Amino acid sequence: MKEVKLHPRDTMTAEERLRAVINLQVPDRVPVSPLIYYFAARYAGINNAELYDPAKFNKALDRVFYDLGPWDIHYYINAYHRELISFFVPMKVLEPGFELPPNSIRQFLEEEIMKEEDYQWIMRVSKLTPRYALYRLFMERWIPRIWEHVGEGWRSYAFMWPRLISAGLRWRLEFERWKRRGVAIMYACPTEAAFDNFSMARGMLKFVEDLRKRQEEIAQAADALVESFVYSFKMVSMITGVKRADLCLHRSSNDFISPETFRKLSLPSLKKLVERFAALGVPTVLHCDGNWDLNLEALRELPAGKAIMQCDGSTNIFKAKEIVGDRICIMGDVPADLLALGSPSEVDEYCHRLIEEVGKGGGFILASGCELAPNAKPENVKVMMESVVKYGYYQDRAAEQARKIA
Amino acid sequence: MSESIASLIAEMEEERTLAQVKEALDAGRDPLSIVEELREGMAVVGKRFEEKEYFLPDLILSAEIFKQAIALIEPHLQAVDTPSRGSIVIGTVQGDIHDIGKNIVATMLRCSGYDVHDLGVDVTPQSFVEKVKETGSGLLALSGLLTLAFDSMKETVQALEKAGLRDRVKVIIGGGPVNETVVGYSGADAYGKDPAEALKLAGIYLG
């Protein structure tokens, strides 16, 4: 494939740049990667329900890319089939155009999808079919409980498999298109880590009870799933052609659990999985929503140069750089409220600070804090994209440093 | 000597708290004083949460114990009304159905002795205004996790102004992306980043 440079001064491709920052090296410039979904609809003047149409979604995203971009890394989240979202977030969901008005935003319901006996089921099935336990958990237990129309047993497989394959192949085609434009792909497929899956699928109140009464089961079931996480990744990676994994950690922040609980129940299986991926030469994107300030020290246990920590604006990203930045690439975190309510100069100032401080010495990706706010001001998004060209070239910084010394 | 009910609930000793409450009731102790002691314990929980000694599961668990203890005490309260620290209307604003945070705040406020009128989720500005009018509440607590909720918060404050109620009602907001900027944008009075801050604000505005 022809090498495409996104900006005239670039000396690296986006893929090379991404690999460099994951390896904690200094790239030519700071890369930028916005997580865009609903913003694209608003910007392109279509309603949120229309994003399920691949043609409309891609057209909307292209418009953002060509008007406000470019960006270095494509960070996608479109499942195209609403039922597939359950593989990512095992909860009942209300969708725009279905249960909600077309311009609403997807919202999840706290219900008991995972039963308490599922912990034992996972351990049993992981012994019998270690590679397939994760798939079986979703196909045989959770999906039928989330979607009545899907049905149980073989019906669940029959319903989900064609959709999984078609989405995977569509992603692959889309990825090829992005690559031709010179954009790198963040990961093969969005995935939720085991502990966080349990928390969401049990529902907050039930899971709080589990944290008291079933700690061992949580830890053992999470550990039992590691092998099938690896195998599932291999399968999806084969379909989508991307060798980077993703683990979302929606319920492991200190907004939900204590640092002790994180160390004891969430980190062990997470660490094992990141190490397994690393051994395969696969880096892991850790989607760290919420405030992780008190978990940062524990993240040092993860293998160095093998992961990205994505911060959403709640974690003190400057502290993250200080505590764990020598081991994990930091990504983030232009906050939603700043992009939605702030002025372009405020966005510019914050991006500049991120690039200077968190980008110091490499190992940094500038990004929106989690998903780009649907009501972000387009002029603010443009400023964010442009900031990596304005401030992000490491050569300029070295020259400035030399000038200062002289 | 038995431990105080306040310290037991603060330590989240579910069974021992409930046993102690039962024992106190059987001994003929004034039920209102037991409620007061439970609230003292909950205040300790709030303080520990603020100091990052306790986390969300601890708040949820202690509130659960509180609820169970109140259920034991209620039959003994007869016609006597428990004194209220003030009335609060709370809800998740229009277009947003997230309710974990809102529910925890509502429970903590109840545990602290406020009359809480929880309107649920996706609440229209008009419904908030009507409830504030009906209850004469002095505090309106708006929750939202989506950035789109900022506009609903603003519209709710505007509806309150239009109804001529803004002067006597304080508005506090909370939820994931909410901060000082959103306070300015929406016209609210203050924001709380967690349940402990919401309690503090209720204390400031209602006493």
Give a verbal description of the structure.
- The complex is a heterodimer of chains A (406) and B (207).
- Helices cover 52% and strands 9% of the residues of chain A.
- With 406 residues, chain A is an alpha/beta fold.
- Chain A has one domain: Alpha-Beta Barrel (TIM Barrel).
- In chain A, the strands form three sheets. Chain A has a five-stranded parallel beta sheet with strand order 5-6-7-8-9.
- Chain B is of the alpha/beta class.
- Chain B has two domains: 73 residues, Methionine synthase domain (Methyltransferase, Methionine Synthase (B12-binding Domains), Chain A, domain 1); 120 residues, Rossmann fold (3-Layer(aba) Sandwich).
- Helices cover 57% and strands 11% of the residues of chain B.
- Chain B starts with a helix and ends with a helix.
- The interface between A and B is medium-sized, with 31 and 26 residues.
Our count of domains of chain B comes out at: 2
With strands numbered from the N-terminus, the spatial order across the biggest sheet of chain A is: 5-6-7-8-9
In round numbers, the mean pLDDT of chain A is 95
Count of spatially separate domains of chain A: 1
CATH superfamily of the largest domain in chain B: Cobalamin-binding domain
Summarize the structure.
The complex is a heterodimer of chains A (406) and B (207). Chain A is an alpha/beta fold. In chain A, 52% of the residues lie in helices and 9% in strands.
Which features does this protein show?
heterodimer, A: 406 residues, 9 strands, 9% strand, B: 207 residues, Methyltransferase, Methionine Synthase (B12-binding Domains), Chain A, domain 1, Rossmann fold, five-stranded parallel sheet, elongated
Q: Which helices and strands, and how do they pair?
A:
The complex is a heterodimer of chains A (406) and B (207).
Chain A lengths: L13 H9 L15 H7 L9 H15 L4 E2 L10 H4 L3 E3 L12 E3 L8 H11 L4 H14 L7 H27 L3 E2 L8 H9 L1 H10 L1 H10 L1 H15 L4 E4 L10 H21 L4 E5 L7 H4 L7 E5 L5 H8 L4 E6 L1 H6 L2 H15 L5 E5 L9 H13 L3 H12 L1
Parallel strand pairs in A: 1-4, 5-6, 6-7, 7-8, 8-9
Antiparallel strand pairs in A: 2-3
Helix pairs in contact in A: 2-3, 5-6, 5-10, 6-7, 8-9, 10-12, 11-12, 16-17
Chain B lengths: L4 H6 L3 H13 L4 H20 L5 H22 L9 E6 L7 H12 L3 E4 L6 H11 L3 E5 L5 H14 L7 E5 L5 H7 L3 E3 L2 H12 L1
Parallel strand pairs in B: 1-2, 1-3, 3-4, 4-5
